[in-house]
Amino acid sequence: MAYSDKVLDHYNNPRNVGSLDKKASNVGTGMVGAPECGDVMKLQIQVNDESGIIEDAKFKTFGCGSAIASSSLATEWLKGKTVDEALRIKNTDIVNELALPPVKIHCSVLAEDAIKAAISDYRNKQGAQA
Amino acid sequence: MNAMKTPIYLDNHATTRMDPRVLDVMLPYFTELYGNAASRNHEFGWAAEQAVDKARKQIAELIGATAKEIIFTSGATESNNLAIKGVAEMYAEKGNHIITAATEHKAVLDTCKKLEKNGCRVTYLPVMGDGLVDLDMLRESITDKTILVSIMYANNEIGVIQPIAEIGKICRERGVLFHTDAVQAVGKVPVDVNRDHIDIMSITGHKLYGPKGVGALYVRRKGPRVQITAQMDGGGHERGMRSGTLNVPGIAGLGAACELARLEMPEESKRMAYLRDRLRSKLEAGLDEVFINGSMEHRLPGNLNMSFLYVEGESLLMGINDVAVSSGSACTSATLEPSYVLKALGLGDDLAHSSIRFGIGRFTTEEEIDYVADKLVDVVAKLRELSPLYEMVKEGIDLSTVQWAAH
Predict the structure, then answer these.
(1) Residues 6 or more apart from A30 whose CB is under 8 A from it?
(2) What DSSP string describes A27-80?
(3) ipTM
(4) Distance separating alpha carbons of residues B310 and B93, to the nearest angstrom
(5) Chain A residues closer than 8 Å to B389 by CB
(6) Residue B400: its chain A contacts at CB < 8 A?
């Protein structure tokens, strides 16, 4: 299969690889997928307490090149957005940006799920705190 | 010394580069000597027939058969279909039970599935963790309705060599015909149809540095005399078992490839095993958490199949894009399912997703092996930096206890 230039770029130079402190109250962690399915994504956001803006995002992904690229792109897009804005990122945006072929659409779905899971974790923590 | 060229080909179980010496043998039969081997009344036909007879002898000699026992086909898929369907049809009055194994090639498995729809009963033997068939289980599976056992000589993914002589002996004792798909083994390891008690055997040209589109089926003529019902109707070529004008250039090439394999196997297999072991030890020295799939003891000299834990196969292939190998990962297969062969060994899907098959061949060099090993160590290390699984394992989390949100 031929990969788009953007997928190759994210694969070769993944953005925002790493981990944030999952115990911190302003960090939300989303882990989706399963090893037996061939992809697991961990995506984390760190939200500024005052502005409510996502000031950092990190990922780690076990999966094919398209899964790595989808999560790498997601972290790029998350930074600088409010949590509500982040929820509006759709998997189809990722498909279009990376020119993913139909067999790789599930990678983009997984990235959207990871964003939602991270935000949900963040909101749960905030709710528990309040 | 020649500079190393990329991409590097380490996918010799898929196909092999044709040996230039084989091409030289074939060329005249395309242009000057273009006769039909079935034309008995002129020189063009005689020259073609001579080439076919020579090839038959060359193939027979490699496998310890006689020339008359070689039937030419278009390749292994046809040979496997002809063997299994041909026996099922010919021996239908004797019985309808066939025994095969879970790790067979699709050309055998899907042929058996087709026969099941037509009233045959098929037993698919599981394999043990090392990929070998359990001989006791084979013995217990044979009934008075069993007409055929079809077990491959060496596996195309993990290179594991089955105990063929013992399987053949069991079949002979029980009066059951034994077919083996030997495409990966012939020309790589010594195969002898008499020592191994083989009754029917599939061979193909392109796995042993010969041309694509030509293969053969060995069909035993004595002790027992095996009969097979033809699966195509026509001019009654090949003792009535396979009609169709013979592919003379291809057959000449298959013969030449078999002769080269016979002459060079002792040296070549040592060299391939040396390169394979070199690759293995370099990878094991450079990386933790690697796992060899299938028996190392009973294995083709040119095969290595390894899982690189916590790294997904397709992303690994992407990182070594100047190296041609294949992966058991679902993402690289047409079916989007991980390798059924690896799953048959009892490997979890996660290990199958992380597997790479290396196929070393006649033209592989030590320099290429070193390049591939170094590159893989780098790429696996890089992808593990990206892998949440590797991170969790390093934190001491047992992945089998994690509740995954499967999708």
Answers:
(1) A41, A42, A43, A44, A113, A114, A115, A116, A117, A118, A119, A120, A121
(2) EEEEEEEEGGGTEEEEEEEEE-TTT-BEEEEEEEEES-HHHHHHHHHHHHHHTT
(3) 0.93
(4) 53
(5) 35, 40, 62
(6) none
Which residue of A19, A62, A106 is in closest CB contact with B310? A62
Chain A residues in contact with B315 by the CB 8 A cut-off are 11, 63-65, 67-68
Task: Name B167's Cβ contacts closer than 8 Å, sequence gap at least 6.
Answer: B133, B135, B138, B149, B151, B178, B180, B197
Nearest-CB residue to B406 (from A34, A42, A109): A34
> In this predicted model, what pLDDT tens digit does every residue of B170-211 receive, in sequence order?
999 999 999 999 999 999 999 999 999 999 999 999 999 999
* Nearest CA-CA partner of B82 in B11, B28, B150: B150
Quote the pTM value.
0.92
Q: Is residue A68 less than 8 Å (CB to CB) from chain B?
A: yes
- CB–CB of A17 and B385 under 8 A? yes
Peptide bond into B163 cis (omega under 30): no
Single out the residue of B401, B304, B265, B318 nearest to residue B11, CA to CA. B304
